[in-house]
Amino acid sequence: MTVGLKDSTIKVERPAKTLRELALDKVREAIDSGHFKPGDRLVERDLCAQLGVSRTIVREVLRHLESEGLVANLPNKGPIVARLGADEARQIYEIRGALEGMAARLCAERGDSTIVEALEAALDDIRQCYRQKDMPGVLASTSAFYQVLFSKVDRHVAWGIVNLLTVRINHLRSMTIKTDNRNIEGPAQMERIIEAIRRGDGEGAYRAAMDHVTSAAAIAVAVISGQSPTSLSST
């Protein structure tokens, strides 16, 4: 006798993320949070024990992080947490400024009220995460804010370019969001971008986005250089 079962009752569900992806997230987060600091050696044996995964997975994770620029493989020393230089940071922010300024201008010129609503929702999430001291949440909500900025004006190619830099951008953000008054000044600058878009002021939106990125670049460079960025703030 054949028992009639719906396919869904015996289907093996694939986990949302593989073990490799989970391990990758953990090591990336450990670098962003400062648990692993620039220059620290990343010893495979130790990572296997800390993560509870095989050496094969650890090696795959380290190779992936090397491709993202977060890990460097030095002769006679092995994998270390990469040191991001001030010049590289400036170049990343130059690209951000050019693309985000363009997207902000286009959003303002589009005259679509749903853009403002979506940006405000993302900004509310950022502020909520700051109140809860949820720094990973701040990073995720900030990425969501910029995704709205690009997707609402169909600039998917530009967003793809930004995504290629997302890991290094978030690595920089993980430094800047911990500086004094970050929870106030960063969202305030993003609010100015939204207000210009609400007014339909393309040039104002462009300038607000550029000011935001320029300020962020100054903070990041100061942190990398070991200086105090107490008078600067951005996300």
Automatic annotation (TrEMBL):
One Pfam entry name: GntR
Keywords noted in UniProt: DNA-binding, Transcription, Transcription regulation
Keyword DNA-binding: yes
Residue span(s) of domain HTH gntR-type: 17-84
Gene3D superfamilies linked to this entry: GntR ligand-binding domain-like, Winged helix-like DNA-binding domain superfamily/Winged helix DNA-binding domain
Lineage: superkingdom: Bacteria
Entries under InterPro entries matching the protein: GntR_C, TF_FadR/GntR_C, Tscrpt_reg_HTH_GntR, WH-like_DNA-bd_sf, WH_DNA-bd_sf
tRNA processing listed as a keyword: no
One Gene Ontology term of the molecular function aspect: DNA-binding transcription factor activity
Family annotation (PANTHER family): GLUCONATE OPERON TRANSCRIPTIONAL REPRESSOR (PTHR43537:SF24), TRANSCRIPTIONAL REGULATOR, GNTR FAMILY (PTHR43537)
Stated name of the protein: DNA-binding GntR family transcriptional regulator
UniProt organism field: Rhizobium azibense
Taxonomic lineage from the root: Bacteria, Pseudomonadati, Pseudomonadota, Alphaproteobacteria, Hyphomicrobiales
